[in-house]
Amino acid sequence: MRVTNRFLLYVSIACVVADAFEPITTTVVVGLGVTLGRIIYNYSQESCDSKWVAFNATGLKVDLEQKLFGQHIASRIVLKALTGFMNNAQPKKPLVLSLHGSTGTGKNFVSQIIAENIYKEGMDSSFVHVFTSELHFPHASKIDTYKSQLQQWIKGNVTNCGRSMFIFDEMDKMHPGLIDSIKPYLEYYDKVDGVCYRKAIFIFLSNAGGESITQIALDFWRAGQDRQTIDLKDLEVPLSLSVFNNKQSGLWHTSLIDKNLVDYFVPFLPLEHKHIVQCALAEMEAKGMVKNHEVADQLARDLVYFPKAERVFSVKGCKTIESKLDYYT
Ligand SMILES: Nc1ncnc2c1ncn2[C@@H]1O[C@H](COP(=O)(O)OP(=O)(O)OP(=O)(O)O)[C@@H](O)[C@H]1O
Ligand SMILES: *[C@@H]1O[C@H](CO)[C@@H](O)[C@H](O)[C@H]1NC(C)=O
Ligand SMILES: *[C@@H]1O[C@H](CO)[C@@H](O)[C@H](O)[C@H]1NC(C)=O
Ligand SMILES: *[C@@H]1O[C@H](CO)[C@@H](O)[C@H](O)[C@H]1NC(C)=O
Ligand SMILES: [Mg+2]
Q1: What is the Cα–Cα distance from 23 to 265, expressed in whole angstroms?
Q2: What is the rounded distance in angstroms from the CA atom of residue 79 to the CA atom of residue 98?
Q3: What is the average per-residue pLDDT within 207-230?
Q4: CB-based contacts of 48: which residues, under 8 Å, 6+ apart?
Q5: Smallest Cα–Cα separation from 235: which of 62, 64, 76?
Q6: Is 160 within any annotated ligand binding site?
Q7: What is the distance between the alpha carbons of residues 257 and 264, in angstroms, rounded to a whole number?
Q8: Where does the secretion signal sit in this chain (predicted)?
Q9: Which of 131, 243, 256 is nearest to 184 (CA)?
Q10: Which ligand neighbours the alpha carbon of 44 most closely?
């Protein structure tokens, strides 16, 4: 649609201008207008081709290594999952990741890193869609409307671009009915109503299971064991138990887990003082400031940590660092 409109617009501008000229000039001007239109179109309009949508495995690896702090497990799973899926020309089902952890540990941040290494426009891409239950689906009474709307959105967007990404934030607050309505798109069906969903990416973010992840991390810390030695298998059982037993999140998880629709559960560990310092330094750099270790350390020390006596993990992770930085500098 837009191609034609823009195209016609440039042609007609060229034609209006051309009216005043001789036939030969007219041809030149029209030709010029058309070429100009094509060039502008080429450089302005995001399209679902390799110019705008191309996976950069190296970029993802480097970003996870350099920008994401204290999440060795999440980092490894995400890289493995994305690389495997994106290099598979014929995936059997869409990629479904479920990111879990307490607040400010980097779940949205990781979704952003993923988007930036697939879409040239990153989170601003018209092929990346973020749904927040409280923002998009606030009223439980309108659930039926939301259901059909969400299904139409997913279908419409995947029809536009098979390599679409859907991020569901605050998944634990999402109405179970809505989750049921997206289930068909996550399954192994070859096609649903003639649309192929197998190249799409679904990412669920939630705090569900965050407490049990934190408890394990604390056990390791108290036993004097290095955080890096925490393994996915140390977290899997407690995570799934707490997620299953959580009344709010239990429904969506059971319905998705039962059918093995989630490919990877990705745990995010609570962050320690040293990670907060890293976040503060990164933020200084992002703001174009000179990195100041003393200020970063002071800022990190002033945050709230738990458990109260030992002060091991930041209550809000790396959240609020950005706004706090203004106060310290
Ligand atoms: N592990 C991390 N490494 C680097 N930066 C981080 C990390 N965790 C958080 N941050 C920084 O803090 C900001 C807030 O984190 P983010 O929004 O990803 O948290 P979240 O896990 O989604 O929390 P919530 O559960 O409250 O939504 C990020 O934009 C990022 O700048
Ligand atoms: C537009 O882009 C395509 C490939 O993306 C290229 O082949 C074509 O030459 C470009 N056209 C112009 C006018 O730049
Ligand atoms: C991929 O990422 C790497 C590392 O960030 C970067 O150097 C490279 O230019 C990127 N490649 C493309 C095609 O964008
Ligand atoms: C794609 O999703 C967005 C919501 O992110 C929605 O507003 C839009 O209408 C959808 N597009 C189609 C073609 O369905
Ligand atoms: Mg978040």
Answers
A1: 67
A2: 14
A3: 95
A4: 127, 160, 161, 162, 163
A5: 76
A6: no
A7: 10
A8: 1-20
A9: 256
A10: 2
Rounded to two decimals, the pTM is 0.86
CA 9 from centroid of its chain's CA atoms = 36
pLDDT at residue 326, as a whole number: 84
Assigned token pair, 105: 């540990």
Encoding tokens for residue 303?
């945050």
In degrees, rounded to 5, the angle at the alpha carbon of residue 136 between the alpha carbons of residues 133 and 139 is 75
Report whether 156 contacts 111 (CB < 8 A).
no
Asked whether 172 and 208 are in contact (CB, 8 A), the reply is yes
Residue written as token pair 């041809």:
27
Report whether residue 103 contacts ligand 1, using a CB cutoff of 6 Å. yes
| 105 belongs to an annotated ligand binding site | yes
Name the one residue in this structure whose structure tokens are 């798109």. Answer: 185
pLDDT tens string 127-165: 999 999 889 999 989 999 999 999 999 999 999 999 999
